[in-house]
Specification:
Chain lengths: 515, 515
């Protein structure tokens, strides 16, 4: 009857003499996933899928375009057809690789307090990455620029619930042979979180490692002893690993840096139309890539991964945040636990603007990741157009959801002080708890404080301009950028040394990407 | 590296001679919740909360404004202070009531195929209800009218994933003493799903039962033998049951019609600021109301319920879709399972417009309901402004999420045909599966078909007007209304008899609501 939500309450302030409650300080830096992982298929079905993937690698094999990678596979015992660039991998090789891969590791932050646990049960978030375009409501949609890249790195650095810093957009105004210098300098200038390094050929990778090593003041051996950065390696589904991807697997593994292996298997397009079929292919490709990394350096830190959703069978366009993606995600989690490795999964949206579709698809996919027990959730904020753009406003509205999930990671006290029998006795029937001692002692820190949600009533909201969440998000990213400051790790002397290195390498001609 | 989502695919159509796959027909009518229920607190903590609620009822009691209800409580063994209108209830009374309440029941549809299982493990959805205002992008926000009521009932009837039909908006242009005739005639004219009947005093309730009984051609005894409609009874938290609510509990129980008991306990306002405290109060009030219903008629079909979220402690405004609501929902599910009753929970949003905040809050709260094992999820589509308005557009965009959840309720085949080794062998490395026999046989029915999501690329979307999800939703609700037809149960002769009853009762003066 009275479920309309029309609550009459009095606005209240702190009275003189009341103790001031402490300011709310939520810790989103080290999260454990509070949701027990769900299963999509039975243990028998899971085993059949794993077996089918092994059979794919043994009987069908895959094409590996980099000669060095084929040589490594051959040395490891694979059957290699050089003319066809084809590799078949026996299950004993896979098993050895899985035995060699670490069950977990700490991805090192630039600052130690930003280390990220990469192990089953841990939970971390990465904002949307790799988009060719940036978009916001003030400047519109445009090809990504160095300015966009810098701004989005600064925004990512500003929120503890984002744990690693990827290349959110492609800075297309930076020359390709110098771009990796720009991105590393920007990452180290504005963030103390673990940085992403693109695998775009051995020279760029070597430059990236050297810049990071020198900036952190590590010896070569110290750098190689722990992962200080990460990359993502996609296979070219179905059943192909191209040159830069294979090179990245080898180079990152040899340097002991983290590799997130991610087949990109859209059901009905690059993969079978069924969840089980697409995940069998994804699993096979991931196992092949992990095996190459472990052959290059046993014990190399890798994450298992998948990016499996469906396409629109009318147009071939990718679809994200669908029931099919959700199911594939659950199955990927089962497979990750089957092989015992930390793993990444992704949210995403195919929407073209930060609207209800965009919010719903991203959150729906996010719940898939959470319930599947993903270790790191990629593209958790800002992605539009299936990754063709990063929206500044969606970055903010998605981050609200990520922060609410981070809130759920904290345990909840539910003892006698929280049951609050005395408070229940203190307030008469039909009364209210605004002034109860129990409330007074807790109200300033009891609840999550929203980032962009507006809880004012319709009249107030209308008076204030009737601005929707995306419009309000514009104010928020602008304010966050205005308040953004370099981290303590951005030491001017170290940055100067970095710039000197970059100047020297630039004079030497830089390093063009390889493909 | 290629995670940008830029997939190059060829548009394809069905070739001549190919077998036509069957049209996709999803069944959303009878859902089981596929998610194992989560716990917020330990078993010991749960028991302490249950014990505290019993102690609240025994020691603190509650105010009951209806003399008949106090008389029933007294006859059942409660300690009643008539002067103070105060009732204290012993735990043995609560235990007897819980023993008498059915563990589950079928809420009867007007059509038998619309029966809804109300038992732990089942899952059903109700759209947003009880809003004083309706809003859509063409006509703006206005006080709810008979036209709005009718349109929203027709929209609810059009979607199988909505299982019961509530009063979505209040038809304020219908005279209060005749409004219940209008609503029942509209419900029976346009829907064959179980209808909601407001508990607004005994005369209106009796009219409602009589109209429904006669329309279904049942004897009085047949009608009373099973629940053919449902109502929602909110307590007046803290610790008060008002006159119409108490009357509703008694009348619906005696008639064997379903009651959803829902304390409305906003943390920090009508309830303690802590989740455990607020749920202790909610639980106590629900137990009191259930006990009244069982005393009125042992075995009366009831659902346990809660509506517990937090308020903005700066303004007192309700907040929905928050981490605190999520936690309260999980705890409510534990308490429902503790007492073994089916239960309702709710989504909701405090947003003022169908934006990303609105989508995110509603979906976040929805996941709380799903993971808490809610039997029926209330306000699952359309609610804005914490229930002060129902948005036609949000109805559509929320329904997309509800339908995607309904998709997840179906089991997934993951045997050899789905693993599809032959298809994996058929497609060469770097190829695609669009033309594979495995895809051809399944592509027309493999994937969920979206209601409002637009998966076209940015160029196409821009050419088509760059319309966001809410704008597209306007087209969808208009098209659904245009295609809406009365159900087979809306027999003209029965409707004529109903109208004759209404005419007679109108001539007699109708039945004003009581409060």
């Amino acid at each position: 009857m009275r479920e309309s939500g029309e609550i009459t309450t009095k606005r209240r302030g702190r009275r003189l003499g009341e103790p001031r409650a402490e300011t709310r300080a939520a810790d989103y830096r080290r999260l454990r996933n509070p949701f027990p992982p769900l299963r999509l298929v039975s243990d028998d079905e899971l085993e059949a899928i794993h077996e089918a993937a092994l059979r794919v690698l043994e009987e069908l094999g895959l094409r590996v375009l980099l000669p060095e990678a084929r040589a490594i596979f051959r040395a490891g015992g694979a059957l290699v057809d050089e003319a066809a660039q084809h590799v078949r991998i026996g299950r004993e090789m896979i098993e050895a690789a899985l035995a060699a891969a670490p069950r977990g590791f700490a991805l090192r932050g630039v600052a130690p307090e930003r280390d990220v646990a990469m192990e089953l049960g841990a939970l971390s978030f990465q904002p949307g990455a790799g988009a060719p375009h940036a978009t916001d409501l003030e400047r519109g949609r445009r090809p990504g620029t160095m300015r966009d890249f810098t701004e989005l790195v600064r925004l990512t650095a500003a929120f503890d619930a984002l744990h690693v810093v990827p290349p959110l957009v492609e800075p297309q105004d930076s020359p390709p042979h110098l771009r990796h210098y720009f991105t590393m300098e920007t990452l180290l200038s504005w963030s103390d979180k673990p940085p992403f390094v693109y695998a775009r050929g051995a020279p760029q990778t070597a430059d990236g490692f050297e810049m990071l090593r020198a900036f952190k003041g590590l010896t070569e051996a110290e750098f190689r002893a722990a992962p200080h950065c990460y990359t993502i390696v996609n296979t070219n589904s179905p059943r192909q690993i191209d040159v830069p991807m294979a090179q990245g697997l080898i180079d990152f593994a040899r340097a002991g840096q983290a590799i997130i292996v991610t087949p990109f298997t859209m059901m009905g397009a690059m993969a079978p139309v069924t969840v089980a079929g697409a995940m069998t292919l994804s699993h096979a490709e991931a196992l092949a890539a992990i095996t190459l990394a472990q052959l290059a350096r046993p014990g190399a830190p890798v994450l298992y991964g998948t990016f499996t959703s469906n396409v629109d069978m009318k147009s071939g366009a990718p679809a994200l945040g669908t029931p099919e993606q959700f199911r594939a995600t659950l199955l990927a989690g089962q497979l990750a636990r089957r092989i015992g490795l930390p793993w990444r999964c992704a949210t995403g949206s195919a929407a073209n603007t930060p609207d209800a579709q965009a919010a719903n698809e991203t959150q729906f996919a996010l719940w898939g990741c959470l319930l599947a027990g993903a270790t790191v959730v990629i593209h958790a904020a800002g992605w539009l157009e299936s990754g063709l753009s990063v929206s500044y406003e969606k970055f903010v509205t998605d981050l609200e959801v990520v922060q609410m999930v981070a809130e759920l990671c904290a345990p909840v006290a539910a003892g006698a002080p929280e049951i609050a029998f005395d408070a229940l006795a203190e307030v008469a029937p039909g009364g209210h708890f605004f002034g109860a001692a129990h409330t007074m002692a807790r109200y300033q820190t009891a609840f999550y404080e929203p980032l962009v949600a507006d809880w004012s009533n319709f009249g107030t909201w209308t008076e204030q301009g009737a601005r929707d969440a995306s419009r309000r998000a514009t104010d928020i990213w602008k304010a966050k950028l205005a308040a953004s400051a370099p981290p303590a790790t951005a030491d001017p002397a170290k940055l100067e040394a970095l710039r000197a290195f970059i100047a020297r390498r630039t004079a030497e001609g830089g390093a063009p990407p390889e493909s």
